[in-house]
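Sequence design from tokenized structure. All designs in this work follow the same two-part layout: the structure record, then the generated sequence. An example of the structure record is given first.
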């Protein structure tokens, strides 16, 4: 009986032990599950953190790209406002520098940017400095001229590809380097200005301090800027040619008849408004028909070109020479009193008379006659001034040619101008 009870007690104890073992197994299992859950949680957190980091980078990159596109649109807006190449490039360069400095500031980098623009001179195959901001041509190692293929800018002009150098002083892969452009090290960005496949020039930019870190999209944006400005240059040149044809004489390059009247109208109103003097010279080549008949129209055209060039070179930059028609030329002399106009006219007459014209292997002489009229002495209107100068020219032709006459109101409408010491 006692043995039986002993066996029962043992069985009960075993059951308790077994129960404890089961509980321990459950605890162990729960611990393992917790450990697995903890590990899973850490990995999930890492995954989420990595995803968040990638998303942040994408947002930052996207933000920069949006800013770059905005900057590009601002540059286009600036360039499209202007018609002349000078204004297009001058204001576009400033807009580019301003936009890039803002982009650098947006990512926490304080950078000072300077730069300029070269245009290609096709005759000499050189880059010629056109405009700059923050740096003068004299400060450049090239002194404002770079042969194609020489130094960084010359090589970029040859390749037609955007070039970004984070540290210019450490640059080794460009041959033919010219003396340093800046004393301190700097990043160097070169952007070719292209119209199709043709390189017209380039933009160079200096970033101080060096170490400019660019996105892949930067190259695309820079290329787009260069291509757009290249097209604007081509359009501006075409516009200038059209304007040239509309306002200039095709043979001599001087203003034509129509533009002469526009300019005279402007100068006459200005002289009247501000109580200024204004003089007009009217010139005719003596015996030009005989010259044409003797030597031919090609020789006649060359003579017209030469006389037009002599007139242009002998007057001031503010004076306005024009071809009036046939063998007649006119010169508008703003802010010029009669006595000074007489000196100018005599200088023109003498220069043409002394100039050798080479025709068919021999030297031929040509002369001109000049009539002068001035405002306010000789006329009260623009047309009146033209008539007065034309009347004085008529007197010069009738008076023997190769001479200068001035208009005079009254019974004696003209008077010959004589300058002491003149031929």
């Amino acid at each position: 009986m006692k043995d039986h009870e002993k066996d029962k007690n043992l069985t009960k104890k075993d059951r308790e032990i077994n129960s404890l073992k089961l509980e321990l197994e459950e605890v162990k299992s729960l611990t393992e599950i917790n450990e697995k859950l903890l590990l899973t949680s850490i990995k999930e957190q890492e995954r989420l953190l990595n995803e968040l980091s990638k998303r942040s980078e994408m947002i930052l990159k996207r933000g920069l790209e949006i800013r770059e596109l905005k900057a590009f649109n601002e540059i286009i807006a600036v360039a499209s406002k202007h018609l002349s190449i000078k204004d297009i490039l001058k204001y576009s360069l400033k807009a580019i520098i301003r936009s890039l400095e803002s982009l650098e500031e947006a990512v926490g980098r304080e950078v000072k940017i300077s730069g300029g623009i070269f245009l290609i001179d096709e005759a000499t195959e050189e880059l010629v400095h056109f405009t700059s901001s923050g740096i003068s041509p004299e400060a450049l190692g090239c002194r404002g001229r770079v042969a194609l293929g020489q130094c960084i800018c010359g090589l970029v002009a040859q390749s037609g590809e955007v070039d970004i150098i984070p540290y210019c002083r450490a640059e080794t892969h460009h041959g033919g380097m010219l003396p340093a452009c800046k004393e301190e090290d700097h990043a160097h960005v070169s952007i070719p200005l292209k119209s199709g496949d043709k390189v017209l020039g380039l933009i160079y930019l200096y970033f101080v301090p060096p170490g400019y870190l660019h996105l892949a999209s930067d190259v695309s944006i820079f290329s787009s800027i260069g291509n757009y400005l290249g097209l604007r240059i081509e359009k501006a040149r075409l516009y200038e040619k059209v304007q040239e044809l509309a306002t200039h004489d095709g043979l001599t390059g001087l203003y034509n008849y129509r533009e002469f009247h526009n300019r005279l109208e402007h100068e006459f109103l200005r002289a009247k408004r501000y109580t200024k003097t204004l003089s007009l010279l009217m010139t005719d080549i003596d015996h030009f028909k005989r010259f044409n008949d003797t030597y031919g129209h090609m020789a006649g055209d060359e003579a017209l070109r030469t006389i037009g060039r002599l007139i242009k070179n002998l007057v001031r930059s503010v004076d306005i020479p024009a071809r009036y028609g046939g063998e007649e030329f006119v010169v508008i002399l703003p802010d010029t009193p009669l006595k000074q106009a007489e000196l100018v006219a005599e200088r023109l007459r003498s220069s043409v008379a002394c100039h050798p014209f080479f025709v068919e292997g021999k030297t031929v002489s040509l002369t001109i006659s000049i009539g002068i009229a001035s405002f306010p002495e000789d006329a009260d209107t623009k047309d009146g001034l033209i008539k007065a100068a034309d009347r004085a020219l008529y007197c010069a032709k009738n008076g023997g040619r190769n001479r200068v006459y001035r208009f005079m109101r009254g019974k004696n409408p003209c008077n010959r101008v004589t300058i002491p010491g003149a031929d």
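The chain is about 50% helix and 20% strand. We note this feature because it recurs in several other targets discussed in the main text.
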